[in-house]
Amino acid sequence: MADTNGKDSAGRDPDSVAAALSQVGDRWTFLLLREAFFGVHRFVDFQRNLGVARNLLSERLGQLTANGILERRLYQTRPERHEYRLTDKGRDLFGVTVAIMRWGDRWLSDTPPLLLTHAEDGGAVEQELRCADCGQVLTARDVRYAHTNPP
Amino acid sequence: MADTNGKDSAGRDPDSVAAALSQVGDRWTFLLLREAFFGVHRFVDFQRNLGVARNLLSERLGQLTANGILERRLYQTRPERHEYRLTDKGRDLFGVTVAIMRWGDRWLSDTPPLLLTHAEDGGAVEQELRCADCGQVLTARDVRYAHTNPP
User: Which of B1, B3, B4, B21 is the best residue to mutate to test the A interface, defined by the most A CB atoms within 10 Å of its own CB?
Assistant: First the structure.
């Protein structure tokens, strides 16, 4: 980012990256979210698709539910079965998920194994940062940061 | 995403989210990246800003360097001192970092502790998904996914 250096960040308040990562900064958690965006809702499907241990899966689904990112719903009563659905807060992580996927496409694979397209016209999905005022597409060099409560 | 269900994802190939998370899917790694975008380059500054243990910091910086996200450069010879700079691959994670920060702003804090603005005109920095063809801003519901090599 422009106009910053090490000094400015001394004693930084916990910011939103840290707060967000405490809720989603875990590889399994993120893979669960990806599955949820793909339309997976049930324990057995998460387990099969990710090859994750039951106790680990159960623990991560519980955390995501406790954090209001997934919602647990009864879909069958005999025997009782629940499914997990994205809440608004969870659905709002789509941009993050796509940003990570696209970075992986650019730097970690020759052919992106999964293609994301606009359903209506088949156009490629691009993630970008844009200035809400002038509309310019922004890179790290165009961005300044400021504490709302300067330390 | 539109038109998907659990069935489609059986036997999913490792995709770019999984690949990317194997390189950056860790809370400390991400916080280090955030610091690097803030202009922090030196071991002592990372350590002070994050309050992270030396061995953990050293291990994470080593991983990021091995993965080509940071570059280790000599900046002083007596005694020998190195600093860590973002590579192109690392700088390209800015969109991901901002996406996570903005999500945290929306859902985890009343007042965003850190404001990102366009340096030139002070406009807010917005992260969005857009169709490369028609230019429409996209949500999860507008997006289809397809395997490049159907399983």
Answer: B21
pTM across the whole model: 0.79
Longest dimension (CA), chain B: 62
- pLDDT mean for each 10 residues of chain B (151 residues): 38 62 78 89 93 94 94 92 94 89 83 82 90 91 74 45
Chain A neighbors of B120, CB-CB under 8 A: 131, 134, 136, 142
Within 8 A of A146 by CB-CB distance, chain B residues are: 114-115, 117
User: What is the Cα–Cα distance from A99 to B30, expressed in whole angstroms?
Assistant: 14
For residue B34, the surrounding DSSP H or E stretch is helix B27-37
- Exposure string of B104-125, with b = 16+ CB inside 10 Å and e = fewer, is bbebbbeebbbebbbbeeebeb
Percent of chain A with pLDDT over 90: 43
CB-CB under 8 Å, A118 with B142: yes
Distance CA(A7)–CA(B86), nearest Å, equals 18
CB A142 within 8 A of CB A136: yes
